[in-house]
Amino acid sequence: FIFVSLFQPSFANAAISDFLYELSLPPVWTVTIIAILFLAAYFILFFLLAGLRSGVNPAPEPATEMEPEIDSSPAEAGFLFRLEYDDSCLVAALIHLAQQKVISISSHHLGWMFHRESPCPGTVAPEERFIFKALFQKGQPVLLEKNGGGDFRQIKRAFRRFMNRHYGRNLAKTRMTAFIPGVILVALGGIALSRAPGASMVHILVYGLFAAAILFTGAFLVVKPTSYANRGNAAAESLRQHLTATRIPATSPKKTLRHFYTHLPHAIALDAARWWITRNCEALYSAGTNPAQIETEWYSNGEKGLHELVSLVEDLLKALKKMP
């Protein structure tokens, strides 16, 4: 760009024509193509280099006995942990609503039934309020089929769109230090094109359309995580390490159960449900309480025991993953 902008059109024309002689293109189209290719190459190279740099992750901090603060809902924590939607976010939101006695879950020969138990309070997370309205917009219990069929397909799609729209848009922003040089390259390319022999408004218009499309695409390539994404991801990772790597303190069975139910939705969202349930069952055994005799108020399948929640969570995820 600097080359074709600083020198006289005849000199630039001769150099470019010799370089791309085999193309047999008029000089003005040669300048247009080179300008567009340089602009596209800039954004692509920056995207590739940024990807290589982001692939080197720092060593994770060791887990501590201190319980991390929980500032996000279970589904939001799961979204920030992966920086994208996962079906565990939906399962975590449903379990969290059930724990608040807003809904209940019962087994069905085809899958699971979700029942409305009380109005959805205004204090719940936005995605939980959304899924509650989506579930009971017809005023009837909703069936989630094991084979992935039924009306729950539309509910899952709507919930995924909501999560991507509500949380996904805040994960990244355009890296202006990389985008502004792209704008400068567009300007230099326009100068070079205007000085090329035979340049007309048609050539400038074609170049402008291609340059605008590349700039628009480049704005999504040269991005960086927001502070919200960085803090949320670090907090979710810290919480997951706490749930999977620390020892359950020896307390009364009542306190153990309260602690267990408090963190269960987040454990589901962070892929730590089986670990969390197993460890708390062991803690209850150590305290003299048989977890197989504990009945969960919001889930009924004809059997007792906290271990039944492992099957519930994993089977719900399997059914959701069968849905497109």
Oligomer kind: single chain
The shape, in one word, is: elongated
Parts with pLDDT < 50 across at least 5 consecutive residues: 1-9, 55-61
Report, as a whole number of angstroms, the end-to-end distance: 47 Å
Main sheet overview: 4 strands, mixed
Kindly provide the radius of gyration, computed on alpha-carbon positions and rounded to a whole number of angstroms.
28 Å
Mean pLDDT: 82
Series of H and E elements: HHHHHEEHEHEHHEHHHEH
* Strand ordering within the main sheet: 3-2-1-6
Structural class: alpha+beta
Question: How many individual helices?
Answer: 13
Percent of residues in beta strands: 5-15%
Tally of DSSP β-strands: 6
Relative helix content: 55-70%
Would you mind describing this structure in some detail?
This protein is of the alpha+beta class and 324 residues long. The protein has 13 helices and six strands. The strands form two sheets. The protein has a four-stranded mixed β-sheet, covered by helices on one side. Strands 4-5 form a two-stranded antiparallel ribbon. The two termini are 47 Å apart.
List keywords for this structure.
two-stranded antiparallel ribbon, 324 residues, alpha+beta, single chain, disordered N terminus, 13 helices
Give the secondary structure arrangement, pairings included.
Elements: H1 2-6, H2 9-19, H3 27-54, H4 74-82, H5 87-99, E1 103-108, E2 111-116, H6 126-135, E3 142-145, H7 152-166, E4 172-174, H8 176-195, H9 201-221, E5 223-225, H10 227-245, H11 253-269, H12 273-286, E6 299-300, H13 308-321
Parallel strand pairs: 1-6
Antiparallel strand pairs: 1-2, 2-3, 4-5
Helix pairs in contact: 3-8, 3-9, 4-5, 4-10, 4-11, 5-6, 5-11, 6-7, 8-9, 11-12
